Amino acid sequence: MRFIAIVLLFFLPFTLDAQEKGKHKRRILKEQKLKAAKEHASQLKSGVLLVRLKAHQKKIDAWTKAGKEKEAQQLMAERDEVNRAIVHSLRQHYKFSEFYFFYDYNSKKVVAGNFDGVLLNDSLLPDASIVVDERSYYVMDAGKINYKNMGTDQIGFCILDKELQQLAPPFPYEVAKKEGFIFRRTYRELAILMNERLNDFYKQ
User: Fold this and answer.
1) How far, in Å, CA of 80 to CA of 124, rounded?
2) Contact, 86 vs 187, CB < 8 A?
3) At a CB cut-off of 8 Å and minimum separation 6, what does 86 contact?
4) Which of 58, 82, 114, 179 has the most beta carbons within 10 angstroms of its beta carbon?
5) How do 98-103 and 48-53 pair as beta strands?
6) Cα–Cα dist 46/74, whole Å
7) 3-state SS string for the chain
8) What is the pLDDT of residues 10-42, one digit of tens each?
């Protein structure tokens, strides 16, 4: 028993030292993440948010090719209704940064910084007068949010970097519709929440 006590007393300083080093490492990592998130917020504030809208183009083309014009037209109508709701909600309630729209089939061009014929106005038409210049830009996906730590997805707004990599906490990168819940959030509520969270984080 005495031997065990001596051994414990011998190793205790090393254990405490390892714990302190672990705490210090976690603190440094937390500070680094916060600094990176603050930089993202600052760049977005002075830059441009490009909102990626779903076009369902492959399915529409497939139905058109198969002679299913009615189905193709119906999907286009449903798509346009959803996208117009997103545009209207953001235009009314998102004020944190300048923003424009593009369809998901132009994602590769956006990553490459090629915006010719890509950016859309509020009528969802290509608009050559929209210019990004050399400003920082981020992408907000109006689609799936991947919660890696939970192994699940949710529908909502999710902010990505220019390489289309999802940003991470503490940056307020997402708001979810909460599909499957009794009270789902509307696009209006998503726009309001995203604007509030970004502003609150930026002012901290």
Assistant:
1) 9
2) yes
3) 51, 53, 142, 187
4) 82
5) parallel
6) 39
7) CHHHHHHHHHHHHHHHHHHHHHHHHHHHHHHHHHHHHHHHHHHHHHCEEEEEECCCHHHHHHHHHCCCHHHHHHHHHHHHHHHHHHHHHHHHHCCCCEEEEEEHHHHHHHHCCCCCCCCECCCCCECCCCCCCCCCEEEEEEEEEEECCCCEEEEEEEEECCCCCECCCCCCCEEECCCCCCCCCCHHHHHHHHHHHHHHHHHC
8) 555 655 555 555 565 667 778 899 999 999 999
Most confident of the ranges 22-31, 151-160, 178-187: 151-160
Q: What is the pTM of this model?
A: 0.84
Token code pair at residue 44 = 């977005």
Determine how many CB atoms are found less than 10 A away from the CB of residue 120.
Answer: 21
Among residues 92, 55, 60, 41, which one has the least CA distance to residue 203? 41
pLDDT at 150: 58
The amino acid present at 116, given as its one-letter code, is D
Question: In what order do the strands lie in the sheet containing 137-147?
Answer: 98-103, 48-53, 137-147, 152-160, 174-176
Give pLDDT, residue 62.
94
Residue 12 tokens read as: 């205790």
Q: Are 163 and 184 in contact (CB under 8 A)?
A: no
16 residue type, one letter: L
> What phi and psi, each to the nearest 5 degrees, are found at residue 54?
-80, 135
